[in-house]
Every structure is written in C-alpha cells, then in structure tokens.
Design a protein that fits this description.
The protein is mainly alpha-helical and 358 residues long. The chain contains 14 helices and four strands.
C-alpha cells in the first residue's frame, strides 16, 4: 500500500469525502421521510424559524461517522481501535437512541442528564480521564477520585454546550465543523490516527448538513435541523476528542494540549456557564430554556441571522487562533483572558441592545 495513503491526514481527508458523499445521499431520504410522517419542529416564541421544519438530519451522523472511521481503519490497516473507541461507540449509541426518542416524544431533562452521565462515565472508566491539569489553578497531578468525576462533568458540559447553542441555522454545525477540522489536523500531525479519522469523518458529514440547514428552504422541502439526536451526539464526540487530545501524550506538553483542546469549545462553554449563572441570579431554573443565548441577544440588537452566524463563527475562530498564538503563556492567564474577552463581547452586545431599545 502506498505510504501516502497510510498518512493519517491523507486517509482522514478520504474519510471526510466519503462522509460528505454519504451525507448528501442520505439526508434527502431522511427529509422525505420526515415530511411524509410530518415529523417536524414547530415554531414557538423561543425558536427563530417561522414554519415547521424537519429536524431528523442528525439521525445520519453517527452511522456515517463510524462507517467512515471503520473504512479508514480497514483501508490503512490501523489496528489501534481499542477500549476507548469501543466505549465511545457504545456510549454514543446510547445517547443516539435516547435523543431520537426525545426528538419524537420529549423526555425529561433529568433522564437526558442521567444518560449523558452514564455515557461520559463509560468514557472515563475506559481509562480516558484527566490525570493532570498542567498547573491550572495551581493543580497538576490528579488522583482518579478527582480526575474521573471531572472528566465526566467536562464531557457532559461540552455535550450540552453544543446542544444548547444549536438555536440558529449553521451555528452548532459550524462551530463543530471548525473544531473537527482543527482536531483532525492536530491529531493527524501528532500521529493519533483513529482520532484523526473520527474528527475528519465528523467534519465531512457536517458539510451536507450545513448545505441543507443554511441554504435549504421549506418551499423546496430541502431544509432541515439536526435535532437533539444530532447535536448531542456531535457534542459528545467533541467532548471525547477534546479530553483525548488533553490526555494522550504527544510532543506538546500538558498545558499546550489542554489549551488547544478547550479553546475549541470555549465560546459554547462560556455561553452555557454565563446562562447558568444568569438564570440562577434571576430566580429561574438553570435548566429552563430561554432566548438569552449570545445569538438571541445579537439578533434582538439588530443583526440579521446571517450576520449573527458570521459574527459567532468569527468569535469562535478568534478564541481558537488567539489561544493557539499565545499557547505558551501561563494557562491561568489564558483562562482569565478568555473569560475577559467573553465578558467584553457580552458587554458590547448588551450596550447595542440598550441602544436598540431606545
């Protein structure tokens, strides 16, 4: 076999292309089924769309991703598909099935959190858990009694952060696509073959979804949402890959790996944390959905949906690229800079909101 095809980056690109092709073939089938059975997401006061829209495109994500990863592994002769990968598959299937039920018949958030915790626990107990924080808050080595629960919490946080920011066409898919492109590149460069395939296949399947999600219309019946089945599975896979990037040894030291991984989810995670405390301070349940995400506030301040999407994705890239440029700074300083930048962004949006209200 050609040495070229055994290169993780080259094989990853092939996996991404295959995933994109399969997505373009299968998403229209899901759309047709959803319209026939009237399995549509209906508008309400919190949602931005005005007409019922199919939301089952996420059904194709997990099967296509793992089919393409398996194909890439078989084609390249990769044999490193081990305990962590099997745990990811089993856990992702559990989330996939539960969220599919939720998309059809709304489930309690308590049930969903329980399932997410069990799934994240499967990852942590497979041996993939944070053993060192690289000096964050002065903490270095972590014992299992602290590292395993922290890993579970972080995977659940990332899963929900991506899910809850899925309120604007192209937003969750775009943020995940950007993260997966970086993850595929970083893992490929460091020789983490299976992680490269997983990230590349996920990026690939998002291309046809974003096409239908952003450019599709209900008049042509080619518009779709990913639904919780899609966003929760994507968020869970993203959480797995971020933790894996931080844990698996490479040529880069621990703080660099931590900063690289968590910069990919900084925007979505900080928005989730902000909302969590905002709701508590206003006497509301932190789990009660509302229209106060960053994209909701931007649109109320006068930005169009497309402009809002562009700004959010540019902010996401700013977090990633700025953290990467400052990668050798102290990890605590970078954390404060990330939080400070997010506070400035929200302050500017709030100022614009006040001006728009006058």
């Amino acid at each position: 076999m050609s040495v070229l095809w055994t290169n993780p980056l080259v094989s990853g690109i092939a996996a991404a292309v295959l995933a994109a092709v399969l997505g373009f073939v299968t998403i229209p089938v899901i759309l047709s089924y959803a319209w026939r059975k009237m399995l549509l997401d209906k508008p309400d006061e919190r949602k931005l769309h005005k007409t019922p829209t199919p939301r089952l495109a996420g059904l194709v994500f997990l099967p296509i991703i793992f089919l393409c990863v398996l194909a890439a592994c078989l084609f390249t002769g990769t044999t490193s598909f081990g305990k962590e990968e099997f745990s990811l598959l089993a856990a992702a299937v559990l989330i996939y099935l539960v969220e599919y039920i939720d998309d059809l018949h709304t489930l309690s958030w308590k049930i969903k959190f329980l399932v997410q915790g069990l799934a994240a626990g499967a990852i942590a107990f497979s041996g993939l858990w944070l053993r060192d924080l690289g000096g964050l808050l002065g903490i270095h080595a972590l014992p299992a009694i602290a590292g395993i629960p922290l890993t579970i919490v972080l995977i659940v946080l990332i899963t929900n952060a991506l899910n809850l920011i899925d309120g604007l066409d192209g937003q969750a898919g775009g943020i995940c696509f950007i993260a997966m492109v970086f993850l595929a590149g970083w893992n490929g460069a460091s020789g983490q073959t299976v992680s490269t395939f997983i990230a590349a296949a996920t990026a690939g399947v998002l291309i046809p979804f974003l096409y239908h999600n952003i450019l599709g219309t209900n008049e042509k019946r080619n518009k779709t949402f990913m639904g919780d089945t899609g966003s929760q599975v994507l968020g869970f896979i993203l959480g797995f890959l971020v933790i894996r990037l931080a844990v698996h040894p490479t040529d880069e030291d621990i703080p660099v790996r931590l900063i690289s991984g968590f910069s990919l989810v900084a925007l979505a995670s900080l928005d989730l944390v902000r909302l969590f405390f905002w709701r508590i301070l206003h006497g509301r349940s932190p789990f009660q959905p509302d229209a106060n995400h960053i994209h909701h506030k931007m649109m109320r301040s006068g930005f169009s949906p497309l402009a809002t999407l562009g700004i959010v994705l540019m902010l996401d890239l700013t977090f990633i690229l700025a953290d990467r440029c400052l990668i050798h700074w102290d990890i605590n300083v970078l954390l404060l800079l990330n939080i400070g930048f997010w506070m400035v962004v929200n302050g500017l949006v709030n100022l614009r909101l006040k001006r728009a209200a006058k």
